[in-house]
Automatic annotation (TrEMBL):
Residues 126-147 have a biased composition (Polar residues). It holds the Pfam family HMA. GO terms for cellular component: membrane. InterPro entries: HMA_dom (IPR006121), HMA_dom_sf (IPR036163). GO terms for molecular function: metal ion binding. This is HMA domain-containing protein. The lineage of its organism: Eukaryota, Viridiplantae, Streptophyta, Embryophyta, Tracheophyta. Residues 122-147 are annotated as: Disordered. It comes from Centaurea solstitialis. Residues 23-86 form the HMA domain. One of its GO terms (biological process) is plant-type hypersensitive response.
Length: 147
């Protein structure tokens, strides 16, 4: 019995595998003024293991990295070039309910984007939950008296 327990114990340890990283897309805002800045960022990020594709957009100050990487490691690697970098703070304009909400509209944002802040999205708990179809219904005693 002791030999079988020892053998099953050995088999249980050999079956454990390392957790595989998931494929992610990381977007980072980096101010790049010239070709040299762009080249430094490109070389730094492409040296990371697990990077499958890299897209640099100098006009939008945006670096998009796709691969089996961790977002914080990519951010640290870009910051190691001496450039000020942060995670991409913008969302497309058409995904936001209130694009001109305070703190959402940013003059420095690329065209078609606004800042990703909570005030720009619709919060169902903050507004009255009254349905517009029952607001002007004949069955609703509190309906508008204009009807």
């Amino acid at each position: 019995m002791g030999y079988l327990d020892h053998l099953s114990h050995l088999c249980s340890h050999t079956s454990s595998r390392r957790k595989r990283k998931t494929k992610e897309t990381v977007e980072i805002k980096v101010k790049m003024d010239c070709d040299g800045c762009e080249r430094r960022v490109k070389n730094a990020v492409s040296s990371l293991s697990g990077v499958t594709s890299l897209d640099l957009n100098r006009k939008q100050s945006r670096v998009t990295v796709t691969g089996y990487v961790e977002p914080n490691k990519v951010l640290k690697k870009v910051q190691s070039t001496g450039k000020k970098a942060e995670m991409w703070p913008y969302v497309p304009y058409n995904l936001v309910d209130y694009p001109y909400a305070p703190q959402a509209y940013d003059k420095k944002a690329p065209s078609g984007y606004v800042k990703n802040v909570a005030q720009a999205f619709h919060d169902p708990g903050s507004s009255p939950s009254e349905n517009l179809t029952t607001l002007f219904s004949d069955e609703n005693p509190n309906a508008c008296s204009v009807m």
